[in-house]
Each structure stands twice: as C-alpha cells, then as structure tokens.
C-alpha cells in the first residue's frame, strides 16, 4: 500500500479504527493494531494522536457531527415530509443505524472514561436542544419531554440490537412509535 498523503492520515486512522470496532471493543484495540490497519507506522500515528482517547474523541465528533448535520439538512428540506411522526421516525432510525459506535461510546463512558462521559453528555444536550427546537416548530406537545422520550427510546432500541434480541421487531416498533406521535399530534 502506498503511503497515504499527509492530509488524509487522520481519515485513514479513523476509518481503520471504525473497522476494528466492528469486531472488538475499543479497550481491546492497541495503537499498534490501528497503525497497521491504517497502513502507517506507529510513529506516524503518534504524530497525529498521542493516545487512544484522542482517536476516540475524533471518532465521536465525526459520528455526532454527521448526525447533527444530516438532521439539520433533513428538517430544512421543504420537499420532504418532516411532520412530527416523520421527525420521530427519522431521529430513531438514524440513532439506531450506527448502534455499534454508540454502544462503544456508552461503554467507554460507563467504565470510567470521564472525558468521554462529559463529551457524550454535552452532545446529548446539544442534540436534545436541536431536536426540541424542530419539534416546537411542528407541534404543541412539550418538546423537551418528547425529545428525551425519543432519545431514551433510541437508546433502548440500541440495547436490544446489541443484545441481538430476536423477540424485538425494530421496524415494527419504530413504525408504531411514529404512528403514536402522529395520533397524539392530531389531538387538539
């Protein structure tokens, strides 16, 4: 493999780390393994990242920024149905699509990585404010309550996905959940 261009090295590192995370927990992956998977030397990796936490923070930021930007674009698209039930369905589906990285984030926060925990809480708060703002534009339902309900349901679905619970039909649940909010929003 040819040496990656300097401006792409972080991309290679993050992509390699994401691939490794599909098979193992972050705590089980060494910097040497990340360097090897990225096709770079350990010295090059250390030049860009001093430790695994820095890589994890960049992965976290990348993941959460993508979710944020996608949500903003989706809600501002005048050609799309962004009604309350569609908004609920969209947020839940987007949250559970990348459940693997979310479970790693939550696991790191739960096992004592205080920086990850604080960063995740801040991002939850930021995302909650954005979702709440978009809900307020669409319904009179208390937006803070509804937003937390959406986020908590998403996290619960992620747990069921991580457990590979065959008794839980994600698609059916998401459909019923969004229909529930459509019915609630129509009650006046």
For this entry, give a set of tags.
9 helices, mainly alpha, 74% helix, 188 residues, single chain
Quaternary class: single chain
First CA to last CA: what distance?
A: 63 Å
Low-confidence spans: pLDDT under 50, at least 5 residues?
Answer: none
Number of E-state strands: 0
Q: Please compute the radius of gyration using only Cα atoms.
A: 19 Å
Secondary-structure element string: HHHHHHHHH
Q: Report the mean per-residue pLDDT as an integer.
A: 85
Helix content: over 70%
Shape call: elongated
- Sheet bearing the most strands, described? none
Beta-strand percentage range: under 5%
H/I helix tally: 9
The assigned structural class equals mainly alpha
Question: Short summary of the structure?
Answer:
Helix content is 74%, strand content 0%. With 188 residues, it is mainly alpha-helical.
Structure description:
With 188 residues, the chain is mainly α. 74% of the residues lie in helices and 0% in strands. The protein is built from nine helices and no strands. Helix 1 packs across helix 2 and helix 6 crosses helix 8. It is elongated and about 60 Å long. The termini are far apart.
